[in-house]
Amino acid sequence: MIFNEAVEKAVENTPGAIGALLMGLDGISLASYLRPEAELELEVVGVEYASLLSEVRKASDILESGDVKEVTVITDRFVVIVRSINRDYFMALALGPEGNIGKGRFVMRVQAPKILKEL
Amino acid sequence: MIFNEAVEKAVENTPGAIGALLMGLDGISLASYLRPEAELELEVVGVEYASLLSEVRKASDILESGDVKEVTVITDRFVVIVRSINRDYFMALALGPEGNIGKGRFVMRVQAPKILKEL
């Protein structure tokens, strides 16, 4: 399955990554992958970020900034990178605070068009 | 004025930066700097991102992710990097789509504690 492969690759190829998922804006997940030792409720994170991505799109519409490609949130405990696949789906990658954000962004930019082809 | 200096420096030291502001979560700006040739309603952008930062904090509280340090949004036309200064103030830096995000993040990490001391 390309979707399962995509989320697993995103995690395995990003130093410090904890988990990744592919989800609809409606909060229904298509695929997810969590490192075995990770303590993170990935689906709950995904649902919150689905809602957040909708808010960011509204703001971008108001500001006439065009389509939202990516949102990155850095908190004390995690880094979450969200990449729009199309209007309905996004991919999210969660990293620990020392995770490699640049590599994570790169990996998702590479995976996004492959996922899009299969949707 | 340290605040005016901080926003001007953030723009001048970041390749591709358009403008920066220091604003309260209430949408009232303390300082802002826009490149002379830039076409951007910086205050309007700030108010939208103030509201967005509040949403991100709510999500982070729900997910017990700790304090929100930084939010980066990449759209077709702009990149906006928002850095929390404390619970009440944030700094935002707007870049063109080809702007240097890594440098922008670095510059804001350097400016944030200097601003915090003066608040």
Structure notes:
- A five-stranded antiparallel sheet of chain A has the order 2-1-5-4-3, with helices on both faces.
- Chain A has helices spanning 2-12, 42-62, 101-118, and strands spanning 17-24, 29-34, 68-75, 79-84, 89-95.
- In chain A, 49% of the residues are buried.
- The first copy, chain A, has 119 residues and is α+β, with helices and mostly antiparallel strands.
- In chain A, strand 1 and strand 2 form a beta hairpin.
- Chain A has a single domain (2-118), classed as 2-Layer Sandwich (Beta-Lactamase).
- Chain A is globular.
- In chain A, helix 1 (2-12) packs antiparallel against helix 3 (101-118).
- Chains A and B meet through helix 2 and strand 3 of A and helix 2 and strand 3 of B.
- Strand 3 (68-75) of chain A pairs antiparallel with strand 3 of chain B.
Task: Give a brief outline of the structure.
Two copies of one chain form a homodimer. Chain A has three helices and five strands, in the order αββαβββα. Chain A has 119 residues and is an alpha+beta fold.
Overall, the morphology of chain A is globular
Number of strands of chain A: 5
CATH architecture of chain A: 2-Layer Sandwich
Instruction: State the helical fraction of chain A.
Output: 40-55%
Query: What does the average pLDDT of chain A come to?
Result: 94
Instruction: Output the CATH topology of chain A.
Output: Beta-Lactamase
